[in-house]
Amino acid sequence: MSFNFYLYRAAAGLGPLNTWDRMQAEPLGSALQVRERIAALYPQITWTLRGQTWSGLGPRGAGAPYLDLMLREEEPGVCHMVVLNKAAPSVMRRLLEALDLNYVCAPEAGDLVDVYAYTDEDPCYAKKAW
Fold it and tell me: Among the residues of 2-128, which ranges form H helices?
């Protein structure tokens, strides 16, 4: 079980990001650009900047998905990943498709995650072979 999921775009055939010896995720744009794309999907998100990290919470309301995410620029203007905390696979699928991402990693477990192989009702994520 993992609580953090890292969503990113990288070349096919890589293992989880915590097995890399260098950054292999492609830049997604600035944190502001990524925030704007996420806000188009979930306009009710409330964003807060703490240090160099943007935190997004929401949307709130009956039937709304739980969202707790972080964006950080590893260098000025360059964000490589969207980090989600306790995310449902339906939320991750929506972000993967909207942002043209192809990986979900659960770094605490060293797993790649197949968000298309489990549902929001399943208690554990589905592992993806690598």
Answer: 31-41, 89-99
Phi, psi of 32 (to 5 degrees): -60, -45
d(CA 97, CA 78): 20
Measured CA to CA, the distance from residue 70 to residue 52 in angstroms comes to 10
Domains and CATH numbers, the chain: 4-11+23-114 (3.30.310)
pTM given for the model: 0.94
**Structure tokens that stand for 124 in this block:** 């554990």
CA 11 from chain center: how many Å?
Answer: 17
Q: What is the pLDDT of residues 20-71, one digit of tens each?
A: 999 999 999 999 999 999 999 999 899 999 998 999 998 777 778 889 999 9
Question: Is 27 in contact with 18 (CB distance < 8 Å)?
Answer: no
C-alpha 68 chain-centroid distance: 10
Cα distances from 93 to residues 15, 52, 114, in angstroms, run: 19, 26, 10
Count of Cβ atoms closer than 10 Å to residue 107 Cβ:
15
